[in-house]
Amino acid sequence: MKRLIAEWEKQSCVLLAFPHIQTDWYDHLNPQSLELSLTPFVRIAQAIAYHQPVYIVCDDKARISQMFCSTFNMIFIEIETNDTWIRDYACLSIEENGVRKLLDFGFDGWGGKFEASLDNSVSIKLHQKGYFGTTPMESIDMILEGGSIESDGEGTILTTSECLCNPNRNGGLTKDEVEERLRDSLGAERLLWLDHGYLAGDDTDSHIDTLARLVGCDTIAYVKCDNREDEHYEALLAMEAQLKTFHTKEEKPYTLVPLPMCKALYSDEGKRLPATYANFLIANGVLVYPVYGTPQDKEAHEVFVSLFPKREIIPVNCLRLIEQGGSLHCSTMQVSY
To answer: Taking 80 as the threshold, does the pLDDT of residue 29 lie above it?
Structure first.
């Protein structure tokens, strides 16, 4: 039996990739922008390191390590990267017949939107350097980003057709073709396809981790928009309706837990930013979630406290992250080896 390990299962470490001068996080007109960009990454790493090891991919481990008051549970690794969204280019953790294995899928910069050759080799380099112990790694000839799929650890995958069937990924596979490939590689027994929902300012073609998240085998947390004037209203209403048609392996409706839609936030150029509370990370004993300095932050906190009563709940201000197109979950990847 083969299965994609669920995020809430025991993890060995969490990966982060920090911004550096060669990334879009650096503004030549404002050199201090890079230091400001590093702040949320430091806070995310600290929040996770209270509970488990954190592997920090960076360009200068001496400089980055000095940004922390304590480097307990942190390992700094110098590897070249194009960008910081390691969720989408890091390896996936599976279990096959009781044995852990890592799968390295291809990454093409979300359908060729951005240069990604360095990012695409990070997992292999980490494995070659021995950071995943003796756990075997297999390269899979398929473009697949970690943020585009959710697993319940029991053969169910939640995803979006906008991303996985997009012509800019794998030439535009059909749902049946995607299901066949994920059955072979991840042991997927069934796929739950969302055909509605999007997030303004998002470059990923509707990654599932910006919209709806499996938080248990029978529970889905999803973004709900109550404002009829918001551009997301109709699409998210249709997404909610489709979620209500989904059933668990036991043929029972999922428990659906709405997350608030963050109020509209904009860049200096007037572009709407992809603020979403669905982009949280479940780690060992902790739930780390993004906040944006809006009234909805408190409402989201209350939802997470009720959803994860046995985990510490830690907010991190991710306004700087959404200015670059992602959020907290996008900047992390859990590994079980």
So the answer is: no
